[in-house]
Amino acid sequence: AAWPFAIMGLLGGFMINIDTVILGWFKGSHELGLYAAAYRPVLLFYVIPAFLSTSLFPIMSRLIQENKAEEMKKILQKSLALVLGVALPIALGGLIVAKPFITLLFGSEYSDASPAFQILMFTLFFVFPGTIISNAIFAYDRQRLFIFSMAGGAILNIVLDILLIPSYSIVGSAVATLISQIFINGYNWYQLKKIISFTVLNNLGKVSISALAMAGIVILLAVLNTPVIITVIIGALVFLVSLIILKEPLLFEVRSIIWR
């Protein structure tokens, strides 16, 4: 049936816009502009796992239909490790260079959006794997589970916005979004674990080391007031080179699964 997807689309749009609506009730246009500056780059980052999950969905559906549980487990674990491996350096880099990054994109008048941006960057740790988890739930034809988590997350977001925005403005709104995403994706993760057993942390050792190496370089460059574009490029190169040195096969393994 198509109706679960329609409801999920409505809830997804609601989740994205409700912060802005409630922020507008309690605060003014200046705060709305700051929050938009903090949230827009994060929304663009959310597109990254969507590309992988779109490729994985038909493969997951086929494996489930063919009762190939071990292969399904393998592709689920590797894809989750991959998106978490991508989220880690992006989030760490965003935390470190938040102010110059926001200033570069929107100008110095939006630099006050940096704290909210830093908080929203933490959502990557939940949204990135959550995208893969959601597609797996769809592949198992359990869309109603996702509807429940989205509805619960939307209600939680509204309550937290009302409680936090009057005192903490855009930072409160960002915290509300983070907590809501933790609830949504944590619930979906828990439900999928009841359907199929999987682990992720065992695949993240080398990725974490590479991300920490990148973070160290980015912090050093930030202290030296290096232009943010150069900092981002060097940080990305350090991360990729570290993966190569450590012989991390994750990206190539997932690619081989998708292209086979």
From TrEMBL:
<feature type="transmembrane region" description="Helical">
    <location>
        <begin position="228"/>
        <end position="246"/>
    </location>
</feature>
<keyword id="KW-0472">Membrane</keyword>
<keyword id="KW-0812">Transmembrane</keyword>
<dbReference type="Pfam" id="PF03023">
    <property type="entry name" value="MurJ"/>
</dbReference>
<dbReference type="GO" id="GO:0008360">
    <property type="term" value="P:regulation of cell shape"/>
</dbReference>
<feature type="transmembrane region" description="Helical">
    <location>
        <begin position="7"/>
        <end position="26"/>
    </location>
</feature>
<keyword id="KW-0573">Peptidoglycan synthesis</keyword>
<dbReference type="GO" id="GO:0009252">
    <property type="term" value="P:peptidoglycan biosynthetic process"/>
</dbReference>
<keyword id="KW-0133">Cell shape</keyword>
<feature type="transmembrane region" description="Helical">
    <location>
        <begin position="170"/>
        <end position="188"/>
    </location>
</feature>
<dbReference type="InterPro" id="IPR004268">
    <property type="entry name" value="MurJ"/>
</dbReference>
<keyword id="KW-1133">Transmembrane helix</keyword>
<feature type="transmembrane region" description="Helical">
    <location>
        <begin position="145"/>
        <end position="164"/>
    </location>
</feature>
<feature type="transmembrane region" description="Helical">
    <location>
        <begin position="200"/>
        <end position="222"/>
    </location>
</feature>
<dbReference type="InterPro" id="IPR050833">
    <property type="entry name" value="Poly_Biosynth_Transport"/>
</dbReference>
<feature type="transmembrane region" description="Helical">
    <location>
        <begin position="38"/>
        <end position="59"/>
    </location>
</feature>
<feature type="transmembrane region" description="Helical">
    <location>
        <begin position="80"/>
        <end position="107"/>
    </location>
</feature>
<dbReference type="GO" id="GO:0005886">
    <property type="term" value="C:plasma membrane"/>
</dbReference>
<protein>
    <submittedName>
        <fullName>Uncharacterized protein</fullName>
    </submittedName>
</protein>
<feature type="transmembrane region" description="Helical">
    <location>
        <begin position="119"/>
        <end position="138"/>
    </location>
</feature>
<keyword id="KW-1003">Cell membrane</keyword>
